[in-house]
Structure to design on (182 residues):
């Protein structure tokens, strides 16, 4: 019996000596406070990285020109008569307007508006690969940083906003498709 107590004591002292800390401190399980603090530190690092990446670094005039070339190509968009795009970097606002042939249906106008926004993001992504690409329910990373306003009108009704197909504004970070006005 004395030998067992001796060995248990020796093993306990050995384990305490190897770890260099008390029995209470040698626990393998981290304390909830430590885990919480570690998660806070990781979250802070992620937020700082996101803020560093948030600045989109593109020449907007190139993005605008390339997008306009694509969406006014008569081979694919014969109904498009004119497109205007403006980026206000100070206000973090992008304005899109398009004039379409008067015979264009509401569905085609809505589809075109969605295509215009997604193509703009895709072209911007070609110049800055840190911009997130779009998906079914996500217009793209540009719209995480910039608000947008979009107007799509029949060519003969460009001065009558109540007659436009689309007259919509979407705040930055809100990822939704534009809506028909009618």
């Amino acid at each position: 019996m004395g030998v067992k107590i001796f060995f248990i004591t020796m093993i306990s002292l050995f384990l305490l000596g190897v770890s260099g800390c008390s029995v209470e401190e040698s626990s393998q399980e981290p304390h909830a406070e430590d885990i919480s603090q570690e998660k806070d530190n990781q979250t802070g690092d992620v937020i700082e990285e996101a803020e560093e990446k948030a600045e989109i670094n593109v020449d907007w005039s190139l993005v605008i020109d390339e997008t306009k070339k694509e969406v006014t190509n008569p081979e694919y968009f014969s109904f498009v008569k004119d497109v205007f795009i403006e980026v206000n970097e100070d206000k973090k606002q992008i304005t899109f307007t398009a004039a379409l042939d008067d015979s264009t249906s509401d569905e085609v106008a809505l589809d075109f508006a969605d295509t215009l926004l997604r193509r703009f993001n895709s072209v911007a992504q070609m110049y800055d690969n840190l911009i997130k690409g779009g998906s079914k329910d996500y217009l793209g990373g540009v719209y995480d940083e910039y608000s947008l306003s979009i107007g799509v009108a029949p060519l003969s009704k460009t001065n009558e906003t109540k007659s436009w197909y689309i007259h919509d504004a979407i705040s930055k970070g809100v990822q939704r498709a534009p809506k028909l006005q009618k």
Q: What stands out?
A: Residues 82 and 128 are 27 Å apart (CA to CA).
